[in-house]
Each structure stands twice: as structure tokens, then as C-alpha cells.
Amino acid sequence: MSDSMARSFGDRLGDRLAAPPYGLTCVSFAKFDDLWKDSDTASFVVDPHVLVAGYLELQPTILVADCRLGTLGLVHHLDRDVAVRAETILDQATYLRHLLVMEAGVDARPVRRPFTVECVLALPSADAEQELKQVFRKTARQTSFWHSIGVNILICADGETPSERSLRRAFPWLLASMREWLNNAGSVTPPRRLRTVSLSNYRLPGERTWTLDERAAVHLVHGQNGSGKSSISEALELSVTGTAMRLQARNVGDYAEVIRNRQATRPAQIDLRFDGGDPWQSAVGARGVEHPLNPGVPVSSFRLDQDAMDDLARRGPAQRAEVFLSSFFPNERGVTSAMDAARAAFDAAITTLPPELQEAVEPLPHDKKAQLINSRVSWVDEERPPTTAEIELIRPVSRESLEALRALSPEIEEYSAAVQFSDAAEFERLLKGFNEALERQRARAGALLDAIAIARQCLAEDNVRSWRPQTRGGTGQEWVALLERWSETVALADLAERHLQVAQTLARAAQLGWGASVEGEGAGLFCEAPEVVAASAEGLRKVLDQANADRKSVYEQLMHTSEPHVAPAGQTASSPDLTARQVRALNVAGTALSPSASDEPLGRTLERAFEKRESTAFSGVTIGAEGWAAQLDAKLTTVQAALTHLKDDSDPVESVAAVRRARYAGPVQRREQLRAALKAGKEVEAATDKVKGIFLTELQNERFNGALNELISLFTPARWAYADVEVSRGTAAGKDTMELEISGVTGSTADLLLNTAELNVFTLAMYLLAAVRIENPLGLLLFDDPLQNMDELTVTTVARGLAKVMCVFPKGWQTAFLFHGEDDLERFRQEVPAAVYLLPWLAPAATSADDVAVASEPLKNTFRSTLQDLTHIVTRRDTH
Question: What is the distance between the alpha carbons of residues 118 and 112, in angstroms, rounded to a whole number?
Fold first, then answer.
């Protein structure tokens, strides 16, 4: 690629670095010295040619000078000879770091902190990245370059602009995402800061006092095994929470017996002093300490140890959520708990709904369930009368059962026959009557069912089922009456069919947008609303079906009365002899078919027919006609099924998935259940809106995950070798969960794919982002040996990154790191401005004269260092 094209890439990348969230200042090469003028800014120059310490020449694509965080960034665009040029760049970057360290160490009064060096290798493709692996392996194996500099990779095809994610992984040392996070994180300022910790007879004999240097924000504590690091950590936990998790886990019944030194005669005591507020002190009793600083604060909110790291990284989504949310999002967790309670109440309300509605909402998430319920049920809270389609949801039994029950009560008949309601008052009146009528039928359902069972047994007897009148001829008057009835049923069936056809035609026309231009009344169906006409179709079909059935029944009766019946030879016509029990049962059962008090009861009608051996009629059935008993039995069977549904409190509803059984509830109760579900759904929507408005939703968006991945990249030496992670919040079995997944890989489980060191880096990054959000009674974040399973290179990288993080950390906070390894302490001390404390080896003596004071070490402290000035070290080199 030509030099002009390389400059073009530098210009495009420079535009991105100058824009949010980076906000770097672009400096022209002619004003190169402006890079060092303001210690609170970060700036860059495109295509510089610079000279370091008078003889090291550098010509990167972009030079970044971050005087806020003390970083010198070299961006190189590698379009050819990737491996060879990369070796040269790493050599130059390492030598640059060496020169900076040497300059900062010369005549170090006052102590100066050298700039760190970060390389960004911009490659045109992922294939070019593969060429670098051998270079990196060789460099890491044969040199210590990687302990001195950071190396980042930016893949961007020719002519394209880098993505936000790729920039974040290449420039994590600018901490753009973390700054954005902290600006919106709701960070708190501790009301006071811890200054001294005094322990008397606490596990070890005598008294130990750790005095934190008030001039430092970072405190590094080193002590060999047995020197008391765990005692300090545990004592701070007791002083804040009143208990100790480690002792709770072992069900220790007497804290004092475990904690007090065995040779001591006085109880163990903890004494804390602060730079603001009153001191605090307490003896350790059987149950811990009395009056702790804040017993409601989880220890994980101010102390990160291996147990907390395991909970956050390795023990699953539920345990991760339990630690993280309770520690850093207590207020928001109350909101999410309210949302979970609203969802649980909503789920309970849904179980009372009609099965077909339950099936519709079942696969949906809660917010979609609430939307669907609202769209289907909102009419219950409206002042208008509902439509016939809407009131289907409060129908307590199947359509077939309701049709069979219509004859039992005029209120049921009136409600079922309504195709629309003139106003809400009419609907309430009909609904109340319908509900009361159903309850009356439920009250008598048991006796009626018993009577129907006996009646059906009677109708199934051979002599009853086969009974015929002695003569079927009848009188001419009876035959004429049947003929007239048949003519009427034919006419009614014809009218019903024509009416149905007209209604269907008008409904289809309305669907196509046609409507009659008719005003006022007197125009029949043309005056009715299209939806009313469409809704009447089902009722018209029922009228048509009934008319056809009546026509067929009367026709059969007419055919049987057209000629006399002569009994076969040798057969004597016999009449059934009904018992008094059967007559009573038939009388009661008949009320379900013909409830009118003026009609002769069924049992008495059959008795009279059998005695006189004459045909008669009941409920449209001619007694003695062909199949008359079967016709009555069929009608009774339909009523029996409907009453059984009422009596058994259940109604089977066929669905695609399965057959559900919904417990019976009357129409008024069903409406209340719909109203309760609607209210519960609205409460879910309101609770969800509150959750969306709280800070916890940061876990759902790019801001938190962006800052998290930026810190992980900053703390990882080979940061390009790992994919980003995504933390998302959810619920399972009514509990909060925090899923940890590989970015872009659905269903991945990052805590099973990342190695132990990466998981520890992940928890450290997450902790630094979240811990500043919670009230801290100590004003201190305690990191108890957080570097386990990290190699020397990772420790160095974490320390170098932490030094930058502490530059943007909210003011008023202190951090303390407890180490058992001298190498870890030294790597941190060299990179992070901090106060250093050395705990004495072996236990102090039990006499007061041998009490031990632990203060910062003047020869090891680095917190007083100032960032070196590069004005005369890195200079512009003119090429003319």
C-alpha cells in the first residue's frame, strides 16, 4: 500500500479517536509540542516523525500522548511484511519504554513515574493476524518485552472504518468506556475513610495496629503466611457486618472461643479509627460483635476474596446474581423483586382464565402476556357494553352445553339469544340473570341428573323402546294437524335459510367496504351494524338446524299416521308398566326438555299414552313414532352432559396441545377473574417499566458490557486471543440470574470456556466497575489476594492497567491489596502509585511492650511519584 493510502488510514482512525467516547485532541505535526502542554488531556498526531532521547527515531501512523493516564501509544498500520515489521516495532517500543524508565529514574528527586508504552498493530485482515503469532511466541519466549509494553491488535480492512468493538479492544488503555460508565454509574462518595485498624488478642497474641497512610489512595500489604492478613480481612468483616461468613459456614456457635488468642486472658477486640466521624470499637463475643457499622451490607460489597471470585465466576448464574445484585444493586434488587412478585401474581391469575386464553399466552414472555391480556380483556374495565365475541371469554360452559341449558331458564334463553346489548345497564341485567339462573341449575343439578339417569334407563328398556300405539291411523283431524305442523316447519326452515344467506351476503359486502346508504329505522338488516349482522350468523344457523330437525321429525310422524298398523299374527300388543319411581324420575327429567308448568309432565304423558295405546307428543317428539325413545334419550343426554359440567365444576376444552380442564366459574366470577388478570398484567407492565428505568438495566446494554470488556482487555496480555464476554440479567425459577456468555455465540457458557486466570480478571474488572455504587462504611475496597492462578506477565499487565484505572477512580475511595507473594507486591509497587506495608513475620509477643505497629515503608512507597515530563525527551524530527 502506498504512503498516501497509509496516511488515509491514519486520518480515518484519527477521526474516530477524536469523536466520542474517546474525545482525543488532534494536534498537527507543526504544533507537536502541544502534546505535552496539558496534563489533563489526551491528544494525538497523525504521521509524526519523532526522536526519543536524541537518537531513537520513531515514525508511527499515529502517536497518542495520554497525559491523564501516563500512556504513550504507538499505532502502526501494517500492510506488508507483517512479521518483519512487527519484530522491529516491538523492539522499538521496548527500547522506548527503557529510555523512559531510565530518564524517570535519573536524579529522582522528586520521584517520577515513567509513561507506559502501548503498541497498536493495525492489520488489514484476520489472515495477517496469524502471521504475528510466531513473532509473539518468539518474543515472549526469548525476551521480557511483554513485561514492559502492551500490545494490541486492530483489524480493519482497507478503505473501511474500525468498528466500536474493535477500537475498544485495541485502545482499552484510554479507558473511554470506563469513563462513560463511571459518569453514569451513580457512584457514591464514602462518608469517611478508614485510617487505623487495631486488633488485640485477635487470633495472635498482643496488639497489632495498621495505620493507613492518608496521602495514598492505594495500599499494598504484604505478609508471609501466618503474619495476620486473614485476621485483618476477617476483623473488617466483623466490624461492618457483625459476623464472619467463614465461621457461619462452619456453624460456629461461639465466635469468641475461635477468635480470641488461647493464651490471652482478655477478649479479642477490634478498634477502628477514621478521618471523619467517631471511632468504633468492640469486643468479639459469642455471636460476633455488638453494634456493627452496617449489618445490612454484604461483605462482598467491600471485600473481594477467592470465595467471592468463585461465586461471581464459577458457581453459576443464580449464585453470581445473588452476590452481585445483593452487593452492588440492593435498591434496584428491591425493584426487581417487586417485578418478580408481580409476575408471580400474574401467572397465578392466568391459571384462572379460560383454557383457550391460557394456551394463547403460555409461550409468551411476561410483557407480551400482559399486552395480549390487555388487548383481549380490556373491555371488562370499560363503560361500554361488550360485544358478543368478547363475552365468549366469560361463557362458563361449552356452546353445546349452553344450548342444552337454554330450555331450563328464561334468563339463560334471553342471555343466549342476545346478539348485541343496547347499553351497559342492559348487559349487567342480562348477565346477572344469566349468572343466577346457572347457579340455580347448579343447585338442582344433582337431583336432575339422578332423575335423567333413571329416565334414560327407562327409555332404554326393550318394551318401552319398541312400544307403538295400537293404531297409527288416528283420526283425520290428527293427520291434518300434523300436516299443518309439517308445512309450518318447512316454511320456517326456508325462511331461516334465506335469512342466513342474506346475513352472510351483507357481512361479506361489509368486509369489502360496501355499506347501504340508509338512515333511520325501517330498513331491516340494512340498518344494522356490519358486526351485528356478522354475529347473527351463528344464531341463524342454529335456528335453521332446529327447523330442519323439526321438519324431519314431523315428517316421520306424518308418514307413520298415513296407514293403519296391524300387529303381527300371534303377537299380543302389550303396554309398558311404569313404576311410580320411574314416573317421578321422568316427570323431573322432562322439565329439562319442557320446563313450562302448563305442559303435562313427561312421566304422566308416557303413562297416558301407554294406557290408551295412543300416540302423543312431548317436546317435539311423537311418542310411539319410529325411534321416539332414542330421540328423547338424545335430548336428555345433551342436557345430562351440560348439567354434569356444572355439577363437576369442570368443562373440557379441546386445544391443539392437549385437553385442558378449567374449574367451573360462573360468568360474573369469570369476569372478575378477567379483571384480576388485567390488573395483574398492568402491574407487571408498571413493574417492568420501573426496572427499565433503574440502573440495573445497564447489565442489559452495551455500556456495562463495554466497560467490562475494556477492563478485561486492559488486564490481559494477549487480549486479542479472547472473545468479548457478555453479562445479561434474567430470571429462573423465580430467582435473579446473571448469565456470562461469549459475545456473539448464542448459548455459550463463558465460565466453562475461559481459563482460571481469565475468570479472575473478569471478576476483578466487574468488581472495580460496580463496587463504587454502594455505601461503604470503611471507604475502603479490600482485595484479599486477588491474583491467584495468574502468571508473572498477567500480574504485571494487571498492575499496569490498575494504575490507569486508579487515575479515573471516583475520589474519596481507597483500595487495599493483600499479598502473600513478594513478586506480586513488587510488580504492583513498580506500576501502581501506592503505600506499601510489611506485616511482621511470626506472631507478636503477648506482652504490651511487644505490641506491633504497621505503617507504610518510606523506601518502598511509590504514591508520591509524579508523571515524568516528555517535553524534551520525545521531540519532533524534521525530515527536511
Answer: 19
